[in-house]
Design goal:
heterodimer, A: mainly alpha, MetI-like fold, 2 domains, two-stranded antiparallel ribbon, 2 strands, disordered N terminus, disordered C terminus, B: 3-stranded mixed β-sheet, 13 strands, 42% helix
Chain lengths: 326, 352
């Protein structure tokens, strides 16, 4: 049998392998390197182009751009602080609102729900991710805003109005509305990735912990702990979407350049200002300031991403397991 | 080898096709294609004009409604044959242009104040002082006596006022703040004029639909939108006190009256604001939208084709304005434009 084996089985001559490897391997490596470098090159190009476009604004305002609250296209004074604030507040609120229930939902879908139901439900959740943002914006403006104005905000003002966080008029538009809309928009990302991670982690760990006599809740704690790096990864992706979301936020945030301590107040995010003002920005400095906003948004995303990654490393002691690799 | 022969054959065929096409054209203008870019506000009427004009003459005009700001950039870069802007260019902007640019106003537009006051019948009346006060954030409730004084017999609620403005840079905003600057020295000094300004009060909605959406959703809200948009969506709009002291409803006729009243100023400088006109019938919050045309077209044939189109738009084109809710230009301003067209020069001689 072995002597009459087909060509596949024939041991290759050393020279033969070397000759083929001599071409194929370096070419393969070069191609993959090209792809990898390409990703970085695109990133570098974005930063370079933004920095070039923002040059007049960088020169005119320097670091004051980040701490000034003035945004006056008529007087040509530009400061990003209100928009930096708006971006961080709405994203933080979206994360606070979305993360706990979404992780709960992911645990339910991965661990407790009947198999068929889990698959159907997660398909529906992922469908939510494919809805375009303007639909969420319209919903926020026409459904959520009246409800906030009539029911939620008057209640908040009446019962929690002693906190500066809940002072003001109930208009239905502002940080609260934007935070809720964003929370719904980022939910599918958190739920579906966390569920996948839990499914990848749970089997062996759960069986082992159950075999050791753990209760269901105790065994869940074990899988959740193992899945933590992956779930944090899901949250980072979700945060990225919240930071950069433009259309839906623009429709519900109220679009003012004020820094309001109250969640009922209105504001704007960096992305929404760019979307609002870019097409009609006629002066050179105005245009440059808008491009610098994009640069700042980019920097914020990088910083938060890096911080989240450090957090993962710190909480897991550098452990990389099934979930971390996922 | 085969491919090379085929390519050569194709090239020959193509050059023959070009020659044939040139020969079959009766007038050189028929082969013209023009491109323009800019304002979104006049896009509905421009696209109608371009469509009808193409059927009539074969001249094809491509227009990208990408916003006045982007339109001005394109004119500056020389990538389009003409631009369009809702705000006239400032002297500084004109100096910044590499070539001399002339303004051609095409139609007028009014900005209406739409409001949401449940239970209110009849039109709300507003004075310039009240409008400024609301948008300055100084008048904060509807039963303020500065509003109540000019609305006798109307029960105004004690509800807070939500002043809604456009969040995106827009010609509509430019018209509105131009008006506010004309009637209020304080506004002129503290806020100023532009397609986007730093609003002292209120919230912003994106686009006419964004502003109208917030106004409709929020009892006690007031916002400014294009007259065309307010009419199409049947929003209640305020009558505004004009310079002659009359409370005037925003209509196409009252807008044309405002343009007419400003004809003299426009003859001197077509960029002069027409807001707050003196005529007793004029609605005070309105403006013109402009085409930006090179005084000395780089391409003489294109320059002639563009001038021909504008001449047509000033005659036949004006008749289509009413249906699309734009205010037509009065004869006096059409005459101003015709004089401008006659002054265009291509290669040393008038192009029209």
């Amino acid at each position: 049998m072995t002597s009459s084996a087909p060509a596949i089985g024939r041991p290759l001559a050393r020279a033969d392998v070397r000759a083929r490897a001599g071409l194929a391997d370096p070419a393969y490596r070069a191609l993959l390197t090209l792809f990898a470098v390409g990703v970085f090159a695109v990133l570098a190009l974005i930063v370079w182009e933004c920095a070039r476009g923002a040059a007049p604004s960088l020169a005119a305002f320097g670091w004051r751009f980040l701490v000034s609250a003035d945004w006056d296209p008529v007087a040509e004074k530009f400061g990003a602080l209100p928009y930096l604030y708006g971006t961080l507040v709405t994203s933080a609120m979206a994360m606070l609102l979305a993360v706990p229930p979404c992780i709960g939902a992911a645990v339910f879908l991965a661990e407790l729900a009947p198999r068929g139901f889990g698959a159907v439900a997660s398909f529906l959740v992922e469908l939510l991710a494919s809805i375009t943002s303007i639909v969420f914006g319209v919903w926020g403006l026409f459904v959520l805003a009246p409800w906030l104005r009539v029911v939620i905000e008057p209640w908040l003002i009446a019962h929690l109005g002693f906190l500066p966080l809940f002072r003001g008029f109930p208009f239905g538009l502002g940080f609260l509305n934007a935070g809720i809309v964003l929370a719904i928009m980022i939910a599918p990302t958190i739920v579906s990735i966390s569920r996948e991670i839990l499914l990848a982690t749970s089997r062996t760990l759960r069986e082992a912990s159950l075999a050791l006599g753990a209760t269901r809740a105790e065994s869940l704690a074990v899988t959740l702990d193992a899945a933590r790096p992956g779930i944090l990864g899901a949250m980072i992706l979700a945060l990225g979407r919240a930071l950069g979301e433009t259309m839906a936020v623009t429709m519900v945030i109220g679009n003012t350049n004020r820094i309001s301590a109250s969640l009922l107040g209105s504001g704007a995010t960096m992305a929404s200002v760019i979307a609002n003002e870019f097409t009609e920005a006629t002066s050179k400095l105005h245009l440059a300031a808008l491009i610098e906003l994009a640069l700042v948004l980019f920097a914020v995303t990088v910083v938060l991403n890096a911080a989240a990654r450090l957090l993962v490393r710190w909480t897991t002691g550098g452990r990389r397991d099934v979930a971390g690799a996922a | 080898m085969h491919r090379r022969i085929r390519n050569a054959a194709l090239r020959h065929a193509r050059s023959w096709a070009v020659l044939l096409a040139l020969a079959s054209c009766a007038s050189p203008a028929a082969a013209q294609k023009l491109t323009g870019a800019g304002a979104t506000f006049p896009y509905p009427i421009y696209s109608k004009w371009f469509d009808v004009y193409k059927q009539k003459t074969g001249v094809e005009i491509n227009y990208q409604s990408i916003g006045s700001g982007a339109g001005i950039q394109q004119v500056k870069a020389g990538t389009v044959d003409f631009g369009a802007s809702d705000a006239a260019l400032s002297d500084a902007q004109l100096r910044d242009m590499p070539r001399a640019i002339v303004h051609i106003p095409t139609v007028g537009g009014a900005v209406a104040l739409a409001y949401n006051l449940p239970g209110m019948t009849g039109a709300l009346q507003l004075t310039p002082e009240a409008i400024t006060g609301i948008y300055m954030g100084r008048i904060t409730t509807w039963n303020d006596k500065r509003i109540a004084a000019v609305n006798p017999g109307v029960e105004l609620p004690a509800a807070p006022i939500l002043a809604v403005h456009r969040s995106d840079g827009s010609g509509t905003t430019n018209i509105f703040v131009t008006y506010l600057s004309l009637v209020s020295g304080e506004w002129k000094e503290l806020v100023g004029v532009g397609t986007a300004v730093s609003w002292p009060a209120g919230v912003g909605g994106k686009g006419n639909e964004g502003v109208a959406g917030v106004v409709r959703q929020t009892p006690g809200a007031i916002g400014y939108v294009e007259l065309a948009y307010a009419r199409q969506n049947r929003l209640p709009v305020a009558r505004v006190k004009n310079r002659a002291g009359n409370f005037v409803e925003p209509t196409l006729a009252s807008t044309t009256a405002a343009v007419e009243a400003s004809a003299k100023a426009l003859a001197r400088d077509v960029r002069a604001p027409i807001a707050n006109a003196a005529s007793p019938e004029a609605y005070p919050i309105c403006g013109l939208t402009f085409l930006l045309v090179e005084r000395q077209p780089r391409d003489a044939a294109k320059g002639k084709a563009l001038a021909d189109f504008i001449a047509w738009a000033m005659k036949d084109g004006q008749g289509m304005a009413d249906d699309l809710n734009y205010a037509r230009l009065p004869a006096a301003v059409v005459a101003v434009n015709e004089a401008t067209l006659a002054s265009l020069v291509a290669a040393g001689k008038p192009s029209h």
